[in-house]
Amino acid sequence: MKILVINGPNLNLLGRREPGIYGGTTLEGIEKELALLAQGLQVSLSFFQSNHEGEILDRIHAAAADGTAGIIINPGAFTHTSIALRDAVTGVAIPTAEVHLSNIHARESFRAHSYLAPVAVGQVCGFGPQSYLMALSGLVALLKKGTMTS
């Protein structure tokens, strides 16, 4: 089973970007932890990060043809602004879990709205890097059961 992990804008700066909010773990560190968990779950992961909305949309579109069973995405600021991202996820019909390091609902009011949440099978936020691990475990469990909640 193939899972695609997508990270949006500014997530390449993890580890040095606002550590009081996002912590000190780098994106590479999160990917290493995910890879270890994936081995135990017997799934394969691929990783993609871009600061450009169009590149993220193109990667989601490509996932529809490359055998991707599920997507985990931290859309960063595109969470709150991108109808195109929502439309891409809806268009490919691949079960998608939304993830955030911080609790977006406890921050500035504009961060509480997610265009992606209504079309995602779930959202995990506020647990730092653990949010990604929780999303992977949950998504794989849903895929293996063949049950989607959205």
Overview of the structural elements:
The chain is of the alpha/beta class and 150 residues long. It is 37% helix and 19% strand. The protein has five helices and five strands; from the N terminus they run E-H-H-E-H-E-H-E-E-H. Strands 2-1-3-4-5 form a five-stranded parallel beta sheet, with helices on both faces. Strand 3, helix 4 and strand 4 form a beta-alpha-beta unit. Helix 2 runs parallel beside helix 5. The radius of gyration is 14 Å and the shape is globular. The two termini are 20 Å apart. The mean pLDDT is 93.
Instruction: Let me know the number of strands.
Output: 5
Question: Beta fraction of the residues?
Answer: 15-25%
Strand order of the largest sheet: 2-1-3-4-5
The major beta sheet can be summarized as: 5 strands, parallel
Total of helices: 5
First-last Cα distance: 20 Å
In angstroms, what is the radius of gyration?
A: 14 Å
Tell me roughly what share of residues is in helical segments. 25-40%
N-to-C series of helices and strands: EHHEHEHEEH
Low-confidence stretches: none
Gross morphology is: globular
Mean pLDDT: 93
Assign the structural class, choosing from mainly alpha, mainly beta, alpha/beta, alpha+beta, or little secondary structure: alpha/beta
What's a quick, concise take on this entry?
With 150 residues, this protein is an alpha/beta fold. Helices cover 37% and strands 19% of the residues.
